[in-house]
Amino acid sequence: MALFYLITIGKVVVVFTVFMVIVAYLSFIERRMVARFQTRIGPNRVGPAGLLQIVADAIKLITKEEVFPADANHTLFLLAPLLSLIPALLIMAVIPFGDKLTLFGKSVDLIISDLNVGILFVFAVTSLGIYGVVMAGWSSNSKYSLLGALRSSAQMISYEVSYGLSIMGVLMMAGTFNLMEIVRSQASFFEWFIFKQPIGFLIFSVCGIAETNRAPFDLPEAESELVAGYHTEYSSMKFGMFFMAEYAHMLNVSAIVTTLFLGGWQGPLLPPVVWFLIKVSIFLIAYIWLRATLPRFRYDQLMNFGWKFLLPLSLLNIFVTGLFMYL
Amino acid sequence: MTLAIFLALATVSVISAILVISQKNSVISALYLVVTLASQAVLYFLLGATFIGVLQIIVYAGAIMVLFLFVIMLLNLKRDEFGPDKKKGQRVLAFLLTLFLAIEILAALKIGLSGGQAVTGVSAKLSIGSPVEVARSLFIDYLYPFEIVSILLLVAILGVIVLVKKRF
């Protein structure tokens, strides 16, 4: 029993460290990539090739003055950044990043918690992330923040429906909620669910981007209309936590797409963990690429697209999948 | 270990449930309700019913309460609009109903403590709480009532649309 606790703590420490390093460097990679897309150079002064830029940013954020808006609800104002960051960190607990590993004659599952309802846990925790946004907007006592929070929650509620329905096809074909089992059912290349469920993959990716409030669905923080959206009034590390939450969510969506549709850690020659990281980074780069390429949606376009196009399409996808499985 | 977690979460659940009804501010009240629902979900986890616990979070804490909060924020209720409702005889009625509920809870506790058969039928099956078991009872054993309920809900949704939308 003591060994089990020790192994679990070890896994948590390793996964958390790697996760936070990727989250930190993701913002740097994004700045460099977007700069290239716009024929600029991007941050390259701090350290070799600008690699220490992230340390400079962290020092800057931590040493900034903390501002509390007048008449803000202090408790909720402090709680909101925590409530958006912690759910984003929790999701990594159920993502499988490798097969069984044998260390000193003891087999270790490369997943922190092998829940039999893993994918549902992901959705439960994702849906709790909205509270951080709503509380931030409401407790700031600012019109921009409140409008940003309202937009954000409306968007997240709308897209969560198609988000959940888009994976039903995968779950029906895999016949399980367990993420490890879903990865195992995609053993060879053409068994990947991206080929069996192409529409499900597209809907899931689009909804994932909308759920993380990223371009082209970044209406909650449309600078020209709302200053910065729900975190307008936040400064110092409290803002930093919202920032980290956004990047952590990007990483989560990429990890879930990899697990559900791209065969997870499966792949030839290289070790499973490396394959997992390669697939996740490909999706992350596509994410940043989209941001640099597409302009922002208008609000009515966003709602029409979500409710009148994605929702019927995902229902149709479930119906067709069921029909094929019955035949 | 399990008992410690249970006691802590049960306390949190009860205290936040009391705070839901004692708060003047409706947004804060709704947030306390989220705490109650989430801590109940963890109680389901403790019972080994992970599926039901996760569904509790997805449906209640994640979907319904977000909609509640959204509507409260959209309407932007003022503090005084939520003062005590002054209807005649409400206090007397509330007292009587609370008394009735208390007697009911005590009776249920008494049956439970004396080892009576309180859990039978559906709930005994659901106590395993795995997705397969839940699906079997919903789609095979109780398919007919399940479909009836879904039609009932559909009618309710249509009714709401008809009531709210004045012009078609």
Main features:
heterodimer, A: two-stranded antiparallel sheet, B: 168 residues, mainly alpha, Four Helix Bundle (Hemerythrin (Met), subunit A), 78% helix
Describe the secondary structure blueprint for this structure:
The complex is a heterodimer of chains A (327) and B (168).
Chain A: H1 2-37, H2 53-63, H3 74-90, E1 101-103, E2 106-108, H4 118-139, H5 143-166, H6 168-174, H7 179-184, H8 193-196, H9 198-211, H10 223-226, H11 236-261, H12 272-293, H13 299-326
Antiparallel strand pairs in A: 1-2
Helix pairs in contact in A: 1-11, 1-12, 2-11, 3-4, 3-11, 4-5, 5-9, 5-13, 6-13, 9-11, 9-13, 11-12
Chain B: H1 2-22, H2 26-46, H3 50-75, H4 90-113, H5 121-126, H6 131-141, H7 143-164
Helix pairs in contact in B: 1-2, 2-3
Q: TL;DR?
A:
The complex is a heterodimer of chains A (327) and B (168). Chain A is an all-alpha fold.
Helix-strand topology string of chain B:
HHHHHHH
The unreliable regions of chain B are none
- Count of extended strands of chain B: 0
> How is the quaternary structure best described?
heterodimer
| Global mean pLDDT of chain B | 81
**pLDDT < 50 runs, ≥5 residues of chain A:** none
Task: Give a written overview of the molecule.
Chain A has one domain. In chain A, strand 1 (101-103) and strand 2 form a beta hairpin. Chain A has 327 residues and is mainly alpha-helical. Chain A has 13 helices and 2 strands. Chain A has helices at residues 2-37, 53-63, 74-90, 118-139, 143-166, 168-174, 179-184, 193-196, 198-211, 223-226, 236-261, 272-293, 299-326; strands at 101-103, 106-108. With 168 residues, chain B is an all-alpha fold. Chain B has 3 domains: 1-79, NADH-ubiquinone/plastoquinone oxidoreductase chain 6, subunit NuoJ (Four Helix Bundle (Hemerythrin (Met), subunit A)), CATH 1.20.120.1200; 88-118; 124-168, no CATH class. Chain B has 7 helices and no strands. In chain B, helix 1 packs antiparallel against helix 2 and helix 2 (26-46) packs antiparallel against helix 3. The longest helix of chain B is centred in the middle third of the chain and has 26 residues, at 50-75. Chain B is globular and about 55 Å long. Chains A and B meet through helix 4 and helix 5 of A and helix 2 and helix 3 of B.
